[in-house]
Amino acid sequence: MKLLSKINRTYFKYGLFVFLIADVVIILMSNYILKDEMDQQLKMETEVIAETVRREGNFHSVYPTDIVEKISYSEIGIETSKDTLLYEASEGELTPYRECTVYKSIKGKHYRITTRQMLMEFDDIFSLYTALISTVLGLIFVLVLLFTQKMNAILWGTFNKNVELLKNYSFSSNEKLQLNTTGIDEFDDLNQVVTSMSNRLEKDYRASKEFSANAAHELQTPLAIIRNKCENLFSEKNLNDETIQSIREIYLSTDRLSGITKALLLLAKIDHGQFNDTEEISLHQLIQLRVENLKDILQDRNLSVDISAAEDCLVKMDMRLASLLIQNITTNAINYSPSSKIIEIKIAQNQFSISNYGEKPIQNAESIFNRFYKESESSKSTGIGLALVKKIADHYGMTIHYNFNNCKHQFTFSLSLC
Amino acid sequence: MKKEILIIEDDLILQKTIVDFLENSGFNCTKANTITKAKEIFDKKFYPIILLDLGLPDGDGLDCITFIKSIWEDTGVIIISAREKLEDRVDGLNLGADDYLVKPFHLSELNARINALLRRNFHTDKIKINFEDIEIDTLDRSVQIAGEKIDFSKKEYDLLLYFIENENRVLTKESLFEHVWGENSVFMDNSDFIYTHINRLRKKIKTSTGENYIKTVHGFGYKLEIH
């Protein structure tokens, strides 16, 4: 939730609460004030009536508002003001009245003078005030809203600019993160923390990038030496079997080591976004080319590749990564396919799949894309080919789905449609 | 007249290994382990082939290429580097290098690349390659045995040429697989594959010459030699 809507929401909640209290308080107060006012009014009216009685000797009562009754001395009571209900014939119901009763002795006669005034019904008062308060509060609310928006634009403007800067900030670009000063202490503190954090991260990032590049590169020269020394040893005469076996193993391990470091470096480089020359690539063509290059190997294992393309699958990728992806999934299929079987490649719009025969489904399908995961102890795989495939797929937002049916391992790649 | 090769590589052991190998193959080698030294050397003398490492102590070998080519247009530059070709956005080939070998490479592969480059740049050089009564014409990629033209498939031709250029040297299955089929054995199993193809080649040669020149070197690979 945006801060402003959060503020508005809270404001609204409390506003409603305040409004209810205010409503009740105002109604009670106005009730009290009105009655007080009315009592005085009624009191004055009794004085006026008493005056009339004194002047003219009698008073023509008007029911129910102005009534003068002659009473005996014993009936004289104290002045009262109270609420009362009278039956109103015209309305056919009881109506609330305020009444004021005074006792006067004029020229030796005793009178009870009662004045009454109809009270507005409580409901009416309530609705009147509620409407009034709502209007006023609504007006205040709108004004405050406008005001906070204005404030927000002023206060948060720089902050929002900085957020944009952060959104567009990446390590791969060589630009340093430069946040604008907002002039607000809290924001500036945040800027400082973020800036120093990003500097630290950037340093770590560069270090790790350097490390992976150095590790991979610097290893290759000694590996080249080992490999070449082994090659020279191959030509030696009179080696015994054990030595031959040892040299061969050293030689093969060197190859493996070199392959693994190169693949790891590739993984790191993809992560670091070093392959970002995008072009539109026809996967159909790329796959056909790859299969053509594998012709001899396929023939040798008596494998055939069946490519069916309903439509071409066009992708926007870095050519090098696209080739790597196709290379690795085809290699994988060939390595794991039993001989004399068919490898099926299906291409459709935004989707392609490759499947090869197998005896049983992969046990830990979710792990096969993990680096150095090997399905079986004996398998000769480096455990990195599929990790590369996954990395490239992730890099371009493709999803990979594995399933096994009719004795076929199938990997389906779906392009993200955005 | 021996062919001259200048090797620019800062790792002295690797440098020596390459030099020993190439001297054995009949080349004359000059060594340099920095760009500065290398510049002094090729300033004075023409080398048909320069092997160039990229990560050198006093700079990047890539900066050398244009410089070399500006002095000796005909010099063939082969980059030997740990950097993968595909990693370099502007790789050496765009800067005018003629070939690119990624470390760790097979020495037999290096040898084949050097010969191919010499043939490309100096057309008089070893257009026809002979081994006993086998003659390979590298221009039209044809093979004649005892004066008779024999049909060889592209891959068989590549294999045979590779063997003849590396005569008396053991070639491993891995290096054959990489040289001829461009596949890395680390990622693809080649166990019977190479064997099948070698056998086919042997048969072809044996049919025409009655000889089996390609020997199996137990545990290592194959080599071409005369008994």
From TrEMBL, chain A:
It comes from the Bacteria. SUPFAM superfamilies: ATPase domain of HSP90 chaperone/DNA topoisomerase II/histidine kinase, Homodimeric domain of signal transducing histidine kinase. Pfam families: HATPase_c (PF02518), HisKA (PF00512). Keywords: Kinase, Membrane, Phosphoprotein, Transferase, Transmembrane, Transmembrane helix. CDD domains: HisKA. Residues 214-418 form the Histidine kinase domain. This is histidine kinase. It comes from Paralabilibaculum antarcticum.
UniProtKB/TrEMBL annotation, chain B:
The keyword Cell wall biogenesis/degradation does not apply. Residues 4-118 form the Response regulatory domain. Residues 126-226 form the OmpR/PhoB-type domain. The modification 4-aspartylphosphate is found at residue 53. Keywords: DNA-binding, Phosphoprotein, Transcription, Transcription regulation, Two-component regulatory system. The keyword Phosphoprotein applies. Residues 126-226 bind DNA. SUPFAM superfamilies: CheY-like. PANTHER family: REGULATOR OF RPOS. This is Response regulator transcription factor. It comes from Paralabilibaculum antarcticum.
